[in-house]
Amino acid sequence: MPFKELVGVTGIHTDDDYAQARATIEVLLDEVGDDEGHPLADVLDFLSDQIKAYEDEHVVIPETEPKEVLRFLMEQQGLKQEDLSDCAPQGRISDILAGKRSISKDLAKRFAQRFHIRADVFL
To answer: InterPro entries in the record, alphabetically (predicted)?
Structure first.
């Protein structure tokens, strides 16, 4: 029997369903962690898929300037401009963050590898 038939969940249809699912997934993440063998791992996977499907259809993520994406990632990881010297010289990073220079395709690829995300977020 498919999992959703077994538990009787039909999906996330409203903002209230979505909010409840987000709260539930936080609890599940704390409980399950990275343990794929955990008894609740299938519930976590199912709920994650349901949340993603709802977000893909209903949640609009505003366009963000590439320099702001870079700034955010640097802040999240506690990085300074000089910490990105493996991608570009500190002066170039400074110019990008100041809006004086755009991110080239080549540099976007290096940032993507550095931060483990898609290159197009930097373009």
So the answer is: Antitox_HigA (IPR039060), Cro/C1-type_HTH (IPR001387), Lambda_DNA-bd_dom_sf (IPR010982)
Quote the CA–CA distance of 108 and 120 in Å, as a whole number: 7
pLDDT in tens, 83-99: 999 999 999 999 999 99
Q: Is 65 helix (H, G, I), strand (E, B) or coil?
A: coil
Map residue 102 onto helix, strand or coil: coil
pLDDT in tens, 102-123: 999 999 999 999 998 889 889 9
Final residue of a domain: which of 16, 40, 58?
Answer: 58
Geometric angle at alpha carbon 80, from 66 and 111, rounded to 5°: 40
Question: Which of 37, 58, 79 is the last residue before a domain boundary?
Answer: 58
